[in-house]
């Protein structure tokens, strides 16, 4: 997980305002979570206006 350009463009007070809404502390990470022995399965898709989200699970082949 890493910050994107939209996050970097936010003023620090806006970033802090968003952070306060999170239930957990988040930070950038370089941890490999690819799990090469598993396959990705999209279990659900959500859309609203121009936005979309896929809920995915990892399963054994």
Short characterization:
Helices cover 25% and strands 31% of the residues. It has 61 residues and is of the alpha+beta class. This is Bacterial HORMA domain-containing protein.
Question: How does this structure look, described?
Answer:
- The protein is α+β, with helices and mostly antiparallel strands and 61 residues long.
- The protein has one domain.
- 25% of the residues lie in helices and 31% in strands.
- It has two helices and two strands, in the order ααββ.
- It has a two-stranded antiparallel ribbon.
- β1 (39-48) and β2 form a beta hairpin.
- The radius of gyration is 16 Å and the shape is extended.
- It starts with a helix and ends with a strand.
- The model has no long low-confidence stretch (mean pLDDT 87).
Characteristic terms for this protein:
61 residues, alpha+beta, two-stranded antiparallel sheet, 2 helices, 25% helix, extended, Bacterial HORMA domain-containing protein, Bact_HORMA_1
What is the string of helix and strand elements? Answer: HHEE
* Average of pLDDT: 87
Radius of gyration: 16 Å
Count the DSSP helices: 2
Structural class: alpha+beta
Q: Domain count, please report it.
A: 1
> What is the number of beta strands?
2
Distance between the termini: 25 Å
């Amino acid at each position: 997980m890493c910050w994107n350009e939209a996050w970097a463009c936010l003023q620090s007070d806006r970033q802090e305002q968003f952070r306060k809404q999170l239930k957990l502390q988040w930070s950038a990470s370089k941890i490999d979570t690819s799990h090469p022995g598993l396959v990705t399965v999209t279990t659900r898709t959500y859309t609203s206006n121009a936005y979309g989200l896929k809920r995915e699970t990892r399963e054994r082949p």
